[in-house]
Amino acid sequence: MEPDQVVKKARADMQKALEHTLHELNSIHTGKASPSMVESIPVNAYGSSMQMKEVAAITTPDARTIQIEPWDKGLLQEVEKGIQTANIGINPTVRGSTIFCPLPELSGDRRKDLIKISHGMGEQGRVGVRAARRDAMDAIKQLVKDKAISEDDQKRLEKEVQSETDSFVAEIEQHLKAKEAELLQV
């Protein structure tokens, strides 16, 4: 592997870890309706399991309601069943060919639980970033061992990788703080 590719690969791997963490954090229910809360719920459709976003239009008509309209009206019961089985604390109601999911008010204890869950997700993100750093450091050590780069280059590359790591971890922390503030907001 080329020396410059080591840093590029590490940056790409860290970006993937960050994006995954952000997706996970966005799925946490904060009392404000968001399509991402239900879009990955599995629905039994046409003999296989599909994600909600693949079988229905998901909108938020107001801050406390998620509206789901299956493209195939025959899937109405399956979509409703999928939401109930997902056990995300939402009780769907069917009106005509549309499913309405009013979001319940979050209790103080539930908010604290969700903050703990979001911190766990943040830690998983940091672990992913650190794993990318470890892989990059191993690749740099291998380049030195193979005499492909000098010790000065090794130090420079290690500094670059550490700098990337610090910036990605800081970004995860920033998003975690924002999510915590959102959860504490009544």
Q: What is the string of SSEs from the N terminus onward?
A: HEEHEEHEEHH
Tell me how many strands there are.
6
Strand order of the largest sheet: 3-4-6-5
Integer average pLDDT: 89
CATH class of the largest domain: Mainly Alpha
- The CATH level-2 architecture of the largest domain is identified as Orthogonal Bundle
The amount of beta strand, in percent, is 15-25%
CATH superfamily of the largest domain: Ribosome-recycling factor
Main sheet characteristics:
4 strands, antiparallel
How many discrete domains? Answer: 2
Overall spatial form? elongated
Distance between the amino and carboxyl termini: 51 Å
What is the number of helices? 5
What CATH calls the topology of the largest domain is Topoisomerase I, Chain A, domain 4
Low-pLDDT stretches are: none
CA gyration radius, whole angstroms: 22 Å
Family: Belongs to the RRF family.
Protein name: Ribosome-recycling factor
Pfam family, one: RRF
Function: Responsible for the release of ribosomes from messenger RNA at the termination of protein biosynthesis. May increase the efficiency of translation by recycling ribosomes from one round of translation to another.
